[in-house]
């Protein structure tokens, strides 16, 4: 409860920050998107609180609604700034939690934010986990978002339990292979089988595929040889605070 109260105050006091991690096209080497990642530098302890702590607590308490809104607004505001500076990558990616996705007014809220920031829908990508995809209303909401032109990526792909057939019926543009499957690549036979299966399935379904958690050149060579489209990970860049991602975008221009 102490943490919950502190989080509530953190929203009011505007204490959260977004870090950004770039996603690269393997063919061109260019940045195709940056993913917004939530951080809370706690003023009282000096600790950097991570999403794994923040998000579950906010989902339980309902704080995810104002926090999720803050994240969307901030990410789009930053993107709009990059457009004015002429350093904007093709897209900004924002994580949406399951509970946040259930809100009935999400589509309208996103439409208003895009309009306020003069962003095209195609410049926003939402990262949803498989757990979001289970219900009829979620399916309708995804179609409404995709209808606006928003890109939808499935995050942490492979760790959920959902059947794969749903992918055929949903307006998804990208699969993000969960970083746990990159561990031990290419020696780990099980992970190798999973990564290759996802890449091949993505190709059959005409989806983009991105590998998360790429940490070394061996993994990079392996992924390139298997036809993975995009990569994200410490080999390329850690998640960076605003000033640092802006410097990186400037250099990559
Ligand atoms: O930044 P870090 O790698 O610790 O993030 C861990 C997880 O938290 C990631 O899988 C990411 O999807 C999730 N996450 C990060 N930022 C946000 C956010 O703003 N909202 C939601 N719902 N999840 C986030
Ligand atoms: O899947 P999710 O959206 O949670 O992924 C983003 C998280 O993964 C961030 O918290 C980020 O700090 C972390 N991350 C990003 N790149 C790497 C990497 O190369 N290795 C590891 N171990 N974690 C990474
Ligand atoms: Na994510
Ligand atoms: Mn992920």
Main beta-sheet strand count, sense and barrel state: 8 strands, mixed, barrel
Instruction: Estimate the mean pLDDT confidence.
Output: 95
Q: What's the level 1 CATH class?
A: Alpha Beta
Shape: globular
Residues in β-strands, percent:
15-25%
Q: Can you say what the CATH homologous superfamily is?
A: EAL domain
Question: What is the spatial order of strands in the main beta sheet?
Answer: 1-2-4-5-6-7-8-9
Distance between the termini: 46 Å
- Which radius of gyration do the C-alpha atoms yield? 18 Å
Order of helices and strands: HEEEHHEHHEHEHEHEHEH
Domain module tally: 1
CATH level-two architecture: Alpha-Beta Barrel
Chemical compounds bound to the protein: guanosine-5'-monophosphate, sodium ion, manganese (II) ion
DSSP helix fraction: 40-55%
- Total helices: the number is 10
How many β-strand runs? 9
Domain EAL: 1-253
Protein name: cyclic-guanylate-specific phosphodiesterase
């Amino acid at each position: 409860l102490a943490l919950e109260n502190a989080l509530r105050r953190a929203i009011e006091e505007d204490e959260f920050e977004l870090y950004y991690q770039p996603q690269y096209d393997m063919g061109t080497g260019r940045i195709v998107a940056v993913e917004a990642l939530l951080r809370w530098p706690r003023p009282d302890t000096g600790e950097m609180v991570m999403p794994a702590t923040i998000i579950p607590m906010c989902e339980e308490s309902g704080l995810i609604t104002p926090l999720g809104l803050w994240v969307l607004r901030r990410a789009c505001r930053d993107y709009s700034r990059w457009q004015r500076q002429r350093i904007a990558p093709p897209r900004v990616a924002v994580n949406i939690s399951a509970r946040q996705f259930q809100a009935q007014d999400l589509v309208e809220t996103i439409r208003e934010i895009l309009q306020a920031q003069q962003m095209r829908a195609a410049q926003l990508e939402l990262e949803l986990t498989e757990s979001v995809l289970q219900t009829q209303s979620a399916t309708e909401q995804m179609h409404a978002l995709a209808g606006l032109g928003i890109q939808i990526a499935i995050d942490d792909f492979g760790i959920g339990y959902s059947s794969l057939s749903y992918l055929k019926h949903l307006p998804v543009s990208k699969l993000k292979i969960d970083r746990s499957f990159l561990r031990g690549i290419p020696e780990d036979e099980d992970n190798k089988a999973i990564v290759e299966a996802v890449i091949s399935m993505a190709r059959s379904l005409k989806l983009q595929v991105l590998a998360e958690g790429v940490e070394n050149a061996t993994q990079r060579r392996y992924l390139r040889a298997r036809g993975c489209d995009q990569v994200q990970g410490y080999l390329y860049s850690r998640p960076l605070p605003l000033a640092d991602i802006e410097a990186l975008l400037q250099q990559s221009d």
